[in-house]
Design a protein that fits this description.
Structural class: alpha+beta
Distance between the termini: 20 Å
Number of helices: 2
Number of strands: 5
Order of helices and strands: EEEEEHH
Radius of gyration: 17 Å
Shape: globular
Strand content: 25-35%
Largest sheet: 3 strands, antiparallel
């Protein structure tokens, strides 16, 4: 399967956005987008955003400024990180490095 031929959802969590996995009968307040399972009883993965600063967008591609997808392009992802370890973006606290989508998605 061609990894460039997938539909992707891009989530921007804003200041308070998060996911929560619950039973479908227990959908949390402020759940603005839900993904339901087929099992019985059904479960749901909800995007919760109390302050409504978060958003989502359906995308055809991966985005030009983003590194390879680690789930489907592991070798390219690994090579991208290892080949760029000398980049100044890696000379920061690990929590900042992990947020850099040029390397980590």
């Amino acid at each position: 399967e061609d990894p460039n031929n997938r539909t992707r959802l891009l989530f921007r969590f804003g200041m308070s956005g998060r996911f929560r996995f619950t039973l479908a009968s227990e959908i949390p307040k402020h759940a603005h987008l839900q993904f339901f399972t087929d099992e019985q009883p059904p479960n749901v993965l909800s995007f919760i955003d109390v302050r409504r600063f978060g958003s989502w967008q359906v995308m055809d591609g991966w985005g030009e400024e983003r590194g390879p997808d680690p789930m489907y392009e592991y070798e390219d992802f690994r090579r991208n990180v290892l080949d760029n370890l000398e980049d100044s973006g890696f000379n920061r606290p690990i929590c900042e490095v992990m947020l850099n989508q040029k390397y980590f998605n």
